Amino acid sequence: MQKVWSITSRWLRPRTASLQAGFSVVEVLLAATVLAMLTTGVAGALVYGRAAGADAGDTARAHLVAEEGLEAVRSIADVSYASLVDGSYGLTQSGSPLSWSFLGSGTTDTTGIYTRQITIATAGTNRKTVTSTVTWPQVSGGTGTITETDRITNWPATLKLWSAAAVAGSVNPATAGVKVATLGNYAYEVLNTTTNNFVVVNISNPASPSIASTSTITNTPTNIFVSGNYAYVTTSTNTTALEIIDVSNPAAPSLKSSVSMTAAVAALGVYVTNGYAYVTRAANATAGANELTIVNVANATAPTVVGGYNNDIQMNEVTVLGNFAYVATSSTTQEMLVVNVSIPSAPALTATYNPSTPNVAALTIAGYGNTVLLGMSTTLDAVNVTTPSAPARLGTFTAVGTVQDIAVDITNQFAFIGTTSTTGEFQVVNIANLAAMALTKTVDVTGTTSTVNGVAYNSSLDVVAASSISTTQRFLTLTRN
Hints:
By secondary structure, the chain is an alpha+beta fold. It is 17% helix and 46% strand. The protein has helices spanning 2-79, 155-158, and strands at residues 87-94, 99-105, 109-111, 114-124, 127-137, 143-153, 166-171, 177-183, 186-191, 198-202, 210-215, 221-227, 230-235, 242-246, 254-259, 267-273, 276-281, 292-296, 304-309, 315-321, 324-329, 336-340, 348-353, 362-368, 371-376, 379-384, 392-398, 403-408, 414-419, 426-430, 438-443, 452-458, 463-468, 475-479. Strands 1, 2, 3, 4, 5 and 6 form a 6-stranded antiparallel β-sheet that branches. The chain has a 4-stranded antiparallel β-sheet with strand order 7-34-33-32, with no helix packed on it.
């Protein structure tokens, strides 16, 4: 019995071992596959986790770089709020002790892997929105971007009121002023003479304006509009009816081109928008001698007349809102023309505006939104042009002298008018309620004959530039007080 058992056990052992050996091969292959999958997953997780961690750290540091940019702009504003001119800039530090300043327009600055750009935009009177944008290459691929935004207010100015407006500063060019325009830190005044008649004034410090340059425009200038790097000046002679001047370097403005127009009459007003200049002229019955002439100025070195409107009425000034040009005329039956300019080559009269009183010429005009302000002798009319084909009077204001020019502040709460009065040549009018416009402040310019012929509001500095015939204050800056 014991012998049989031994034989049986001996044969069973090899069989059992054979079965175990076959199972181990399959198990090894399976285990290797599982191990490979686990290794790949763990390695991927480690790599991804490391990249995600690095990106998170880079993002946190990017926020610090962006916040530093906002703090830098605050420090610049504390020194000179006027330095916050709309646009995009990089930042730099210089001097001893170190202080922040802007690099040129359109630039960026870099800190390590980070590229930063500051964007400044007007957010209302004495308010700027500042955006600090930072970009960097991400470890995980692509580009990271974060943005921080802040609002900066010129508190010292906001505490002042237009109800206490006053002359902040002045300079005295050689000849009486005709009109003025302003942009950024500069004002551009044209004078009633044939030489040294184009003056650029630095108004970055309104209390101490200074002449940056004086140059000559051919013939006597009559009006001016500034847009971008160019000043558009009308003159008293048709051969140089519109002069386009490069003012990118205020210290050395240069003539880019001149536009000649049919018939020997003076150009009187100009407004520029969307690549077109709208020029108004004295009356002329000559065929093709349009009193409203539209010029394509997209290429400042090669402007071309593309269209015009003629009805033998002197057209004094023009403003453009949307597809319509609103023209102040010397007619006593159609003081304002509404001209459809949606097709610049074929402008067409849409409507006329003739208030019951006064029946006098309209010398000047300004517009914003759906409102036009029209100056007729001593009357300032507010006209609703929501429906251009049916302009309607909203309200009226009586000035102390003939209204020579009109400007409106960025909030559309105040209108500034230059007049012929000898006791209040500059007036601030509250236009918040157009149905009940009211005098806010009258400012007297020195001299017995000190007509203010031109006014222009500067939204960056919240000041008004004025052009007068005073013998001592031919250019003025006026501010809240």
